[in-house]
Specification:
Elements: E1 3-5, E2 17-21, H1 22-39, E3 42-45, H2 53-59, E4 67-69, H3 72-80, E5 85-91, H4 97-105, E6 109-114, H5 117-130, E7 136-140, H6 154-166, E8 170-175, H7 186-209, E9 216-219, H8 222-227, E10 236-239, H9 247-252, E11 262-272, E12 277-280, H10 284-287, E13 304-307, E14 312-321, E15 326-330, E16 346-350, H11 354-358, E17 363-367, E18 376-379
Parallel strand pairs: 2-17, 3-10, 4-5, 5-6, 6-7, 7-8, 8-9, 9-10
Antiparallel strand pairs: 1-18, 2-11, 11-12, 11-16, 12-15, 13-14, 13-16, 14-15, 17-18
Protein backbone atom coordinates (compact mmCIF):
# COMPACT_ATOMS: atom_id res chain seq x y z
CA UNK A 1 0.00 0.00 0.00
CA UNK A 2 1.43 3.36 -0.94
CA UNK A 3 0.62 7.02 -0.96
CA UNK A 4 0.53 9.34 -3.92
CA UNK A 5 0.97 13.12 -4.14
CA UNK A 6 -1.84 15.62 -4.51
CA UNK A 7 -3.38 15.95 -7.94
CA UNK A 8 -6.66 17.70 -7.21
CA UNK A 9 -8.85 19.66 -4.84
CA UNK A 10 -12.05 18.65 -3.06
CA UNK A 11 -14.00 20.37 -5.84
CA UNK A 12 -12.51 18.00 -8.42
CA UNK A 13 -12.70 14.58 -6.78
CA UNK A 14 -15.09 11.89 -7.94
CA UNK A 15 -17.74 11.27 -5.31
CA UNK A 16 -18.50 9.63 -3.02
CA UNK A 17 -15.03 9.32 -1.53
CA UNK A 18 -13.35 9.28 1.86
CA UNK A 19 -11.71 12.47 3.14
CA UNK A 20 -9.16 12.50 5.94
CA UNK A 21 -8.30 15.75 7.70
CA UNK A 22 -4.67 15.20 8.65
CA UNK A 23 -4.67 18.20 10.98
CA UNK A 24 -7.52 16.82 13.08
CA UNK A 25 -6.06 13.32 13.01
CA UNK A 26 -2.70 14.55 14.30
CA UNK A 27 -4.38 16.45 17.11
CA UNK A 28 -6.32 13.34 18.13
CA UNK A 29 -3.19 11.21 18.13
CA UNK A 30 -1.25 13.71 20.23
CA UNK A 31 -4.09 14.01 22.75
CA UNK A 32 -4.13 10.32 23.70
CA UNK A 33 -0.35 10.02 23.56
CA UNK A 34 -0.12 12.80 26.15
CA UNK A 35 -2.66 11.04 28.39
CA UNK A 36 -0.67 7.81 28.26
CA UNK A 37 2.55 9.64 29.07
CA UNK A 38 0.88 11.13 32.12
CA UNK A 39 -0.11 7.64 33.27
CA UNK A 40 3.32 6.21 32.43
CA UNK A 41 1.73 3.40 30.41
CA UNK A 42 2.49 2.25 26.88
CA UNK A 43 -0.07 2.68 24.10
CA UNK A 44 -0.76 -0.10 21.59
CA UNK A 45 -2.90 1.63 18.95
CA UNK A 46 -5.50 -0.53 17.27
CA UNK A 47 -5.09 -0.30 13.51
CA UNK A 48 -8.47 -1.82 12.63
CA UNK A 49 -9.91 1.66 12.07
CA UNK A 50 -7.40 3.13 9.59
CA UNK A 51 -6.08 -0.06 7.92
CA UNK A 52 -3.44 2.15 6.34
CA UNK A 53 0.34 1.98 6.43
CA UNK A 54 0.63 5.77 6.32
CA UNK A 55 -1.72 6.28 9.26
CA UNK A 56 -0.04 3.46 11.20
CA UNK A 57 3.34 5.16 11.04
CA UNK A 58 1.82 8.38 12.34
CA UNK A 59 0.06 6.78 15.31
CA UNK A 60 2.60 4.21 16.57
CA UNK A 61 5.43 5.00 18.96
CA UNK A 62 8.03 3.30 16.76
CA UNK A 63 8.46 2.05 13.19
CA UNK A 64 7.78 -1.59 14.16
CA UNK A 65 4.89 -0.94 16.54
CA UNK A 66 3.45 -1.80 18.92
CA UNK A 67 0.02 -2.16 17.35
CA UNK A 68 -3.14 -4.25 17.54
CA UNK A 69 -5.14 -5.69 14.65
CA UNK A 70 -8.51 -7.38 14.24
CA UNK A 71 -7.82 -9.55 11.19
CA UNK A 72 -4.93 -11.61 9.91
CA UNK A 73 -5.18 -9.66 6.65
CA UNK A 74 -4.26 -6.57 8.65
CA UNK A 75 -1.41 -8.43 10.36
CA UNK A 76 -0.04 -9.60 7.00
CA UNK A 77 -0.26 -6.16 5.40
CA UNK A 78 1.34 -4.37 8.33
CA UNK A 79 4.05 -7.01 8.82
CA UNK A 80 4.99 -6.75 5.14
CA UNK A 81 5.53 -3.02 5.76
CA UNK A 82 7.84 -3.71 8.71
CA UNK A 83 5.28 -3.29 11.50
CA UNK A 84 6.06 -6.45 13.40
CA UNK A 85 5.06 -5.97 17.08
CA UNK A 86 1.44 -7.05 16.67
CA UNK A 87 -1.44 -8.31 18.78
CA UNK A 88 -4.19 -10.15 16.90
CA UNK A 89 -6.91 -9.10 19.32
CA UNK A 90 -9.64 -11.55 18.32
CA UNK A 91 -9.91 -15.14 19.56
CA UNK A 92 -7.78 -17.36 17.34
CA UNK A 93 -9.07 -20.62 15.86
CA UNK A 94 -6.99 -23.70 14.92
CA UNK A 95 -7.63 -23.10 11.21
CA UNK A 96 -5.84 -19.74 11.43
CA UNK A 97 -2.65 -21.04 13.02
CA UNK A 98 -0.98 -21.70 9.66
CA UNK A 99 -1.15 -17.99 8.88
CA UNK A 100 -0.08 -17.08 12.41
CA UNK A 101 2.98 -19.32 12.15
CA UNK A 102 3.83 -17.98 8.69
CA UNK A 103 3.80 -14.45 10.05
CA UNK A 104 5.97 -15.35 13.01
CA UNK A 105 8.45 -17.21 10.82
CA UNK A 106 8.65 -14.17 8.56
CA UNK A 107 9.77 -12.09 11.55
CA UNK A 108 6.58 -10.77 13.12
CA UNK A 109 6.26 -10.93 16.90
CA UNK A 110 2.57 -11.77 16.61
CA UNK A 111 0.61 -12.51 19.79
CA UNK A 112 -2.80 -14.19 19.69
CA UNK A 113 -5.77 -14.37 22.07
CA UNK A 114 -7.68 -17.31 23.58
CA UNK A 115 -10.43 -17.48 26.20
CA UNK A 116 -11.19 -21.19 26.71
CA UNK A 117 -9.36 -24.48 27.36
CA UNK A 118 -10.26 -25.89 23.92
CA UNK A 119 -8.64 -23.03 22.01
CA UNK A 120 -5.70 -23.00 24.42
CA UNK A 121 -5.23 -26.75 23.97
CA UNK A 122 -5.28 -26.51 20.18
CA UNK A 123 -2.74 -23.70 20.32
CA UNK A 124 -0.48 -25.58 22.74
CA UNK A 125 -0.59 -28.78 20.69
CA UNK A 126 0.28 -26.93 17.51
CA UNK A 127 3.13 -25.12 19.24
CA UNK A 128 4.52 -28.43 20.52
CA UNK A 129 4.12 -30.03 17.10
CA UNK A 130 6.00 -27.20 15.43
CA UNK A 131 8.57 -26.86 18.19
CA UNK A 132 7.79 -23.16 18.33
CA UNK A 133 6.00 -21.17 21.02
CA UNK A 134 3.06 -19.05 19.87
CA UNK A 135 2.59 -16.27 22.45
CA UNK A 136 -0.95 -15.79 23.67
CA UNK A 137 -2.95 -13.55 25.98
CA UNK A 138 -5.97 -14.81 27.89
CA UNK A 139 -9.01 -12.66 27.16
CA UNK A 140 -10.97 -11.51 30.21
CA UNK A 141 -14.65 -10.52 30.01
CA UNK A 142 -14.63 -7.37 32.13
CA UNK A 143 -18.16 -6.18 31.32
CA UNK A 144 -20.30 -8.89 29.72
CA UNK A 145 -19.89 -7.25 26.32
CA UNK A 146 -18.25 -10.06 24.37
CA UNK A 147 -15.88 -13.05 24.69
CA UNK A 148 -13.60 -13.75 27.62
CA UNK A 149 -13.08 -15.61 30.88
CA UNK A 150 -15.22 -14.31 33.73
CA UNK A 151 -12.90 -12.44 36.11
CA UNK A 152 -14.20 -14.35 39.12
CA UNK A 153 -13.72 -17.76 37.44
CA UNK A 154 -10.23 -18.37 38.77
CA UNK A 155 -10.40 -22.09 38.05
CA UNK A 156 -11.00 -21.52 34.32
CA UNK A 157 -8.35 -18.82 34.20
CA UNK A 158 -5.72 -21.05 35.78
CA UNK A 159 -6.65 -24.02 33.61
CA UNK A 160 -6.11 -21.97 30.47
CA UNK A 161 -2.96 -20.44 31.93
CA UNK A 162 -1.43 -23.84 32.73
CA UNK A 163 -2.23 -25.21 29.27
CA UNK A 164 -0.55 -22.24 27.61
CA UNK A 165 2.39 -22.13 29.98
CA UNK A 166 3.07 -25.83 29.43
CA UNK A 167 3.81 -25.04 25.79
CA UNK A 168 5.70 -21.82 26.55
CA UNK A 169 2.86 -19.72 25.10
CA UNK A 170 1.50 -17.70 28.04
CA UNK A 171 2.25 -13.99 27.68
CA UNK A 172 -0.45 -12.38 29.83
CA UNK A 173 -4.04 -11.16 29.88
CA UNK A 174 -6.13 -8.67 27.92
CA UNK A 175 -9.61 -7.17 28.13
CA UNK A 176 -11.75 -4.62 26.32
CA UNK A 177 -14.50 -2.52 27.91
CA UNK A 178 -16.86 -2.47 24.96
CA UNK A 179 -19.72 -1.55 27.26
CA UNK A 180 -18.11 1.88 27.63
CA UNK A 181 -19.82 2.74 24.33
CA UNK A 182 -23.12 2.63 26.19
CA UNK A 183 -22.13 4.96 29.03
CA UNK A 184 -24.12 8.14 29.57
CA UNK A 185 -21.57 10.34 31.37
CA UNK A 186 -17.85 10.83 31.69
CA UNK A 187 -18.05 9.63 35.29
CA UNK A 188 -19.66 6.42 34.04
CA UNK A 189 -16.84 5.99 31.52
CA UNK A 190 -14.28 6.50 34.30
CA UNK A 191 -16.07 3.89 36.42
CA UNK A 192 -16.05 1.48 33.48
CA UNK A 193 -12.32 2.13 33.02
CA UNK A 194 -11.72 1.14 36.63
CA UNK A 195 -13.86 -1.98 36.21
CA UNK A 196 -11.80 -2.85 33.13
CA UNK A 197 -8.49 -2.24 34.90
CA UNK A 198 -9.51 -4.16 38.01
CA UNK A 199 -10.61 -7.23 36.04
CA UNK A 200 -7.33 -7.46 34.15
CA UNK A 201 -5.08 -6.69 37.13
CA UNK A 202 -6.90 -9.13 39.43
CA UNK A 203 -6.61 -11.92 36.86
CA UNK A 204 -2.93 -11.17 36.37
CA UNK A 205 -2.47 -11.35 40.13
CA UNK A 206 -4.23 -14.74 40.24
CA UNK A 207 -1.98 -16.15 37.54
CA UNK A 208 1.16 -14.95 39.29
CA UNK A 209 -0.02 -16.30 42.64
CA UNK A 210 -0.31 -19.71 41.00
CA UNK A 211 3.29 -19.49 39.75
CA UNK A 212 2.35 -18.60 36.18
CA UNK A 213 3.96 -15.73 34.24
CA UNK A 214 1.90 -12.68 33.31
CA UNK A 215 4.20 -9.99 31.91
CA UNK A 216 1.46 -8.32 29.81
CA UNK A 217 -1.68 -6.72 31.24
CA UNK A 218 -3.46 -5.14 28.28
CA UNK A 219 -6.68 -3.10 28.52
CA UNK A 220 -8.45 -0.52 26.49
CA UNK A 221 -11.22 1.08 24.51
CA UNK A 222 -11.25 4.61 23.16
CA UNK A 223 -13.59 5.95 25.89
CA UNK A 224 -11.82 4.28 28.83
CA UNK A 225 -8.36 5.14 27.51
CA UNK A 226 -9.23 8.83 27.64
CA UNK A 227 -10.93 8.89 31.04
CA UNK A 228 -9.25 6.23 33.18
CA UNK A 229 -8.31 7.73 36.54
CA UNK A 230 -5.78 5.00 37.35
CA UNK A 231 -3.87 2.50 35.23
CA UNK A 232 -1.94 0.96 38.10
CA UNK A 233 -0.90 -2.59 37.24
CA UNK A 234 -1.58 -2.14 33.51
CA UNK A 235 1.32 -2.54 31.07
CA UNK A 236 -0.39 -1.29 27.90
CA UNK A 237 -3.57 0.38 26.67
CA UNK A 238 -5.26 -0.32 23.36
CA UNK A 239 -7.51 2.11 21.49
CA UNK A 240 -8.39 2.56 17.84
CA UNK A 241 -11.19 4.87 16.72
CA UNK A 242 -9.68 7.83 18.59
CA UNK A 243 -7.40 8.45 15.60
CA UNK A 244 -10.41 9.63 13.57
CA UNK A 245 -13.22 9.82 16.15
CA UNK A 246 -16.86 9.74 15.01
CA UNK A 247 -20.39 10.73 16.02
CA UNK A 248 -20.73 7.90 18.54
CA UNK A 249 -17.63 9.14 20.35
CA UNK A 250 -18.93 12.73 20.17
CA UNK A 251 -22.25 11.55 21.59
CA UNK A 252 -20.41 10.01 24.54
CA UNK A 253 -18.55 13.27 25.19
CA UNK A 254 -15.17 11.70 24.39
CA UNK A 255 -14.61 14.26 21.61
CA UNK A 256 -16.39 17.10 19.88
CA UNK A 257 -17.69 17.04 16.32
CA UNK A 258 -14.83 19.40 15.48
CA UNK A 259 -12.43 16.51 16.21
CA UNK A 260 -13.91 14.09 13.66
CA UNK A 261 -11.20 13.60 11.05
CA UNK A 262 -12.79 11.18 8.55
CA UNK A 263 -15.77 12.28 6.45
CA UNK A 264 -17.39 11.22 3.20
CA UNK A 265 -17.42 13.74 0.36
CA UNK A 266 -20.67 13.66 -1.59
CA UNK A 267 -22.43 15.62 -4.35
CA UNK A 268 -25.99 16.94 -4.53
CA UNK A 269 -27.72 15.07 -7.35
CA UNK A 270 -31.35 16.13 -6.96
CA UNK A 271 -34.22 17.51 -4.90
CA UNK A 272 -37.68 16.50 -3.77
CA UNK A 273 -38.67 19.96 -2.59
CA UNK A 274 -42.21 19.12 -1.56
CA UNK A 275 -40.78 16.47 0.79
CA UNK A 276 -37.95 18.66 2.05
CA UNK A 277 -35.32 16.32 0.59
CA UNK A 278 -31.89 16.96 -0.87
CA UNK A 279 -30.56 13.91 -2.71
CA UNK A 280 -26.84 13.05 -2.72
CA UNK A 281 -24.68 10.32 -4.21
CA UNK A 282 -23.61 8.87 -0.83
CA UNK A 283 -25.85 5.98 0.18
CA UNK A 284 -25.20 3.11 2.56
CA UNK A 285 -22.50 1.73 0.29
CA UNK A 286 -20.50 4.89 1.04
CA UNK A 287 -21.55 5.43 4.66
CA UNK A 288 -22.30 1.87 5.90
CA UNK A 289 -25.57 0.98 7.62
CA UNK A 290 -24.19 1.72 11.09
CA UNK A 291 -26.68 3.63 13.21
CA UNK A 292 -24.67 3.75 16.41
CA UNK A 293 -26.11 7.06 17.59
CA UNK A 294 -29.69 5.75 17.46
CA UNK A 295 -29.37 4.56 21.06
CA UNK A 296 -27.82 7.81 22.25
CA UNK A 297 -29.70 10.88 23.53
CA UNK A 298 -29.13 12.62 20.16
CA UNK A 299 -29.78 10.46 17.11
CA UNK A 300 -27.62 11.62 14.20
CA UNK A 301 -29.35 9.33 11.65
CA UNK A 302 -26.70 8.31 9.08
CA UNK A 303 -24.48 11.32 9.70
CA UNK A 304 -24.14 15.05 10.21
CA UNK A 305 -23.98 17.14 7.06
CA UNK A 306 -21.10 19.61 6.61
CA UNK A 307 -20.14 22.00 3.89
CA UNK A 308 -17.22 21.21 1.61
CA UNK A 309 -14.78 22.64 4.16
CA UNK A 310 -16.02 20.39 6.95
CA UNK A 311 -18.12 22.93 8.86
CA UNK A 312 -21.36 21.50 10.24
CA UNK A 313 -24.53 22.80 8.58
CA UNK A 314 -27.01 23.27 11.46
CA UNK A 315 -29.83 20.73 11.75
CA UNK A 316 -29.02 18.91 8.49
CA UNK A 317 -28.84 15.12 8.66
CA UNK A 318 -28.26 12.33 6.21
CA UNK A 319 -31.64 11.02 7.25
CA UNK A 320 -32.08 8.01 4.97
CA UNK A 321 -29.91 5.95 2.67
CA UNK A 322 -30.43 3.71 -0.31
CA UNK A 323 -27.60 1.73 -1.83
CA UNK A 324 -26.09 4.60 -3.82
CA UNK A 325 -28.26 7.56 -2.84
CA UNK A 326 -28.75 9.44 0.38
CA UNK A 327 -31.58 11.70 1.50
CA UNK A 328 -30.66 14.84 3.42
CA UNK A 329 -33.33 16.66 5.38
CA UNK A 330 -33.74 18.82 8.44
CA UNK A 331 -33.60 17.27 11.88
CA UNK A 332 -37.10 16.47 13.19
CA UNK A 333 -38.50 19.50 15.02
CA UNK A 334 -36.15 21.99 13.39
CA UNK A 335 -37.60 25.34 12.40
CA UNK A 336 -34.75 26.23 10.09
CA UNK A 337 -35.25 26.65 6.38
CA UNK A 338 -33.79 23.96 4.16
CA UNK A 339 -30.63 25.47 2.64
CA UNK A 340 -30.46 26.11 -1.09
CA UNK A 341 -27.93 23.52 -2.24
CA UNK A 342 -27.85 23.38 -6.05
CA UNK A 343 -27.12 20.33 -8.18
CA UNK A 344 -23.38 19.70 -8.07
CA UNK A 345 -22.83 21.25 -4.64
CA UNK A 346 -20.24 19.37 -2.55
CA UNK A 347 -20.92 18.30 1.03
CA UNK A 348 -19.15 16.20 3.63
CA UNK A 349 -20.88 13.70 5.93
CA UNK A 350 -19.57 12.88 9.41
CA UNK A 351 -20.08 9.16 10.13
CA UNK A 352 -21.62 7.42 13.11
CA UNK A 353 -18.86 4.80 13.21
CA UNK A 354 -15.56 5.61 11.56
CA UNK A 355 -14.44 1.95 11.38
CA UNK A 356 -17.54 0.92 9.43
CA UNK A 357 -17.59 3.92 7.10
CA UNK A 358 -13.89 3.79 6.28
CA UNK A 359 -14.26 0.08 5.52
CA UNK A 360 -16.41 1.01 2.52
CA UNK A 361 -13.51 2.78 0.78
CA UNK A 362 -10.14 1.93 -0.76
CA UNK A 363 -8.26 5.14 0.03
CA UNK A 364 -8.14 8.38 1.99
CA UNK A 365 -8.02 11.70 0.17
CA UNK A 366 -5.89 13.67 2.61
CA UNK A 367 -6.45 17.36 3.31
CA UNK A 368 -5.28 19.80 5.97
CA UNK A 369 -7.11 22.45 7.96
CA UNK A 370 -8.12 25.53 6.01
CA UNK A 371 -7.45 24.08 2.57
CA UNK A 372 -9.34 22.17 -0.10
CA UNK A 373 -6.12 20.89 -1.66
CA UNK A 374 -5.72 17.12 -1.59
CA UNK A 375 -2.14 16.72 -0.34
CA UNK A 376 -1.95 12.92 -0.66
CA UNK A 377 -3.91 9.78 -1.39
CA UNK A 378 -3.31 7.02 1.17
CA UNK A 379 -4.36 3.51 0.27
CA UNK A 380 -6.20 1.34 2.76
CA UNK A 381 -6.99 -2.36 2.64
CA UNK A 382 -9.95 -4.56 3.37
CA UNK A 383 -10.68 -8.24 3.88
CA UNK A 384 -9.82 -10.92 6.41
Amino acid sequence: MSSSPATSTLDQLDTPCLILDETRMTRNIERLAAIMRAHGVGLRPHLKTPKSIEVAHRVMSGPRGPAAVSTLQEAEQFAAAGITDLLYAVGVTPAKLDRVLALRRAGADLTVVVDNPEAAGALARRAAQEGEAIPALIEIDCDGHRAGVQPQDTAALLEIGRILHGAGCLRGVMTHAGESYGCRSLDAIAAMAEQERRAAVDCARSLRAAGLPCPVVSVGSTPTAHFARSLEGVTEVRAGVYVFFDLVMAGLGVCGVQDIAATVLTTVIGHQREKGWILVDAGWMAMSRDRGTASQPVDQAYGLVCDIDGEVLPDLLLAETNQEQGIIRLRPGSRRALPDLPIGARLRIMPNHACATCAQHDAYEVVRAGSRAVVARWSRFRGW
